[in-house]
Design goal:
- The complex is a heterodimer of chains A (303) and B (406).
- Chain A has two domains: 5-84 and 134-216, P-loop containing nucleotide triphosphate hydrolases (Rossmann fold); 225-282, 2-Layer Sandwich (Alpha-Beta Plaits).
- Helices cover 32% and strands 29% of the residues of chain A.
- Chain A is built from nine helices and 14 strands.
- Chain A is globular, with a radius of gyration of 23 Å.
- Chain B has two domains: 52-153, D-Maltodextrin-Binding Protein, domain 2; 174-402, no CATH class.
- Helices cover 67% and strands 4% of the residues of chain B.
- Chain B contains 17 helices and four strands.
- Chain B has helices at 2-16, 19-55, 82-90, 104-107, 120-124, 132-140, 146-153, 174-211, 215-219, 224-258, 265-290, 296-311, 317-322, 327-334, 339-349, 356-385, 394-402, and strands at residues 59-63, 76-78, 96-100, 111-114.
- The longest helix of chain B has 38 residues, at 174-211.
- The chains are: A alpha/beta (303), B mainly alpha (406).
Amino acid sequence: MTAALDVRGVTKAYDTKVAVDAISLTVEPGEIFGLLGPNGAGKSSLIRMVMDIIRPDSGEILMFGRPVSPDAKDKVGYLPEERGLYQRQRVGEILQYLGELKGLARHVAARRAERYLDRVGLLEVRRKKMRELSKGMQQKVQIAGILLAEPDLIVLDEPFEGLDPVNRVLVTDLLRECSGRGAAIVLSSHRMDQVEAMCRHVFLINRGKGVLSGAVETLKERFADSAVWLEADPDASGHPLVERAQPGGRGLKVWLRPGATPEQLLAALVSGGSRIRRFERALPSLDDIFVRVVGLPPGEAPP
Amino acid sequence: MRKAWIVARHEFLVTVKRVWFVIATFVLPLITTGIGLGMWWVGHRTVEASIQTTRQKPLGVIDEWGGLKNDPPFEVRTFTGTKPAIEALQRKEIGAYVIVPPNYLETGTVRAVFMRLPSIFTAQRPLLPEGFDKWLVGNVLSDVDERRVARAKAPLNVDTTYLDVEGLPSAETDKTVVKRFGTAMAFFVLLFMTIFTSSHYLLQGIAEEKENRVMEIVLASVTPGQLMLGKLLGLGAAGLLQMAVWVMLGIATVLALTVQLFLTPATFLLCLAYFLLGYVLYGSLMLGFGALGTNLRESQQLASVWTFVAMSPWFIQLALTEAPQGTLARVFSFVPFTAPQTMMFRYAIDPKGTPWLDIVISIVVLGVSTVVALKLSARLFRAGLLLYGKRPGVREIWRWLLAARS
């Protein structure tokens, strides 16, 4: 299957500062792909190169197997970080214009504008001017404007910024729907919880370099300590297999001694007559991994 | 091209639907023309009435010279001294009186006495009755034969003939040249004003998109070149529409009344070609430079340099009129920034004398320069579009211009 997006060794420098340094990544159709990184890591520069707004100094970017071209842009939806819409124009007219720019016929664009405004719960504001809408509503109009062309590749830079929890769920559902019909989604964010909830694959970029990539579950395994979440009676903090313990959100987090396995601890607790309510491998969150990797000194490789 | 067209239609419709566009296009010229004409009419009537009250009454004459023998073509009351003349003025029986002194033949001076305040307008026009000077000439030459008197009164009546290069009488007359000059000026002013008006809309459009942060969303669908072309066409059309309405509402009427145009189909087509090429050249340069500003004021400052360049041929219009095929005119015709204005002028003034080679060279130079300007401006436009809050330095601009692709 042809990748929706294939970035090959892309580099971009501004004067002497290298913003993006030999980045390569692949996004498959139907995949929700998380692009993570601290502020100023080079995410937006990379995205702008994908969108052909700035040009890479070297490397190649393929969309659906072909170099980025003006025609290919019709199949791509893009929500930039620096975003806004014409404040003095009517919502419906703006969306129709955005649809037309994506190659939709005028009447189709008008119909889709209504449909997608309805999807984000804003059909009644279609005749209002943009400036009359709240910030959150404007954000939803922008998302409707991207989805109405039903693109095959959707690139979103911090899409949840400015949305309340209810609308975050609404947008998440919409994006899952797009992925369900085969659209590839690139989600750039520093909201780890959202990325973790939505993405199968993530790519972590720091100081312009790709420092970590892979499936979320694999990465969690890779960064997992030898620890478990335990809720048991009596408390197992003094057990000989346990090195140390610390209470947390899911009970007691227990670190095993070197060489000990969770299975050994479980067997020992059961045979010792403990009543166990929870026994779960303690995998790190993306947040933990992010902090651990980004916190590394420059040049040092993650585990 | 289709996307540029969509951008153009959107920009045009959005602009012409704005309340201020409608007011500026239709209401303001009506109000200004109405107020202007009204004030002029009231003022004119006051001046005329003031002059007529003096001129329509009999003229008092004190002939100290003794040579005023002929009958005047206006009503006269003769006085022998100033006192009765002043009394007649006070009683408003006469509008003014004149004293023709004994040494009139030596000095030519006649003293005129009015009972009114001098004013700037009446000072420009003689308040004495019509034909007063000719009546004096008739009296001076009372013993000379009538035909000589007539020649003394109107000694020069030039009947000019212009020959073409083959020595045959040319169809050109002084009157047609005046019309040609009017035509040349009309095209010149129209091009300049269109560039000026449209540039305002172009820069406003760019500044607005930058301020609203909508630029990057639009650039996800169109190339900077398409966006620039679309804006150039759409906002240019809005500017042209406004100009057309203004011309139709007022300026054309005034022009048609005072200056008659000389417009052949060839002149019109050629001037139209220069007009459009000139507009695209200047419009793209203004957009490219305007995109480098971070707000409307800065964009206008950056783009204003082109307004001055566009105006430069204005300063050589005397040379263009007098020697439309001279070296200066030809040099200005081959410089792209001055070619449209200069060639429109040259061709309108002297269509037969303008060599076809000059027209072809200037159009080729202009066409190539327009394409180059569009490409370079698209580079500046692309680089400038995403600049928020920071104005680029000259080195940076130079690097963008040299960038491999646009």
